[in-house]
Amino acid sequence: MCLVLKNVVKSQIENAYCTVMAIEQALLSWVHLTSAAIWVGGSLFIGAVFAPILKKMSMSVEERLQFMIKVGRRFNKIAVPALIILIVTGIYQAHLVLQKSDILYDTGYGNVLIIKMILVSALIVTYAIHVRIIRKDVEDQIIAKQIPEAQLQKLRKKIIVLGEITVVLSVIILFLAALLNSGGEI
């Protein structure tokens, strides 16, 4: 009788543990997906909706650039934390695979994960360059109209190209995340 009761209690504890782990995984996935929605959705909105509308507005190049920088700075207040959360939760979700080189290098899942990590690194570098180009002193020079037109056009082009690269990398990374979620086999 005591052995049967012990096994019942052990089984209930195991079931409770599995339930807690499932809830933890669901919450982790939800935080990761919410952060991805903020990062990728916001980037797509700025690149595909806001920038084209801004380009057609009758403002001067300086005014449009100032407006874009202000919107970008506002977006960064939620985008940067979302990107950090994405990286942290992504590493946490991948930590078991990252600890086993045979899984990492010898499986489709591991190969997709490696590609995703490389692209995330490229995204971080691209984003850092993008933010560095439009730092506060450059914004102040734009406002004061201290940047010649030719240099302003070059700056605008760099910002656009880096923004487009950021969006493309983000969408590819999102696809790779979906691929990993489905088992990682190509």
Number of domains: 1
Main sheet makeup: none
Query: What's the total count of β strands?
Result: 0
Output the number of helix runs.
6
What is the topological layout?
Elements: H1 2-56, H2 61-98, H3 101-106, H4 108-133, H5 136-143, H6 149-181
Please describe what this structure looks like.
The protein is mainly alpha-helical and 186 residues long. The chain has one domain. Helices cover 89% and strands 0% of the residues. It contains 6 helices and no strands. The protein is elongated and about 85 Å long. The N and C termini lie far apart (52 Å).
Summarize the structure.
The chain is mainly α and 186 residues long. It contains 6 helices and no strands.
Key terms:
186 residues, mainly alpha, 89% helix
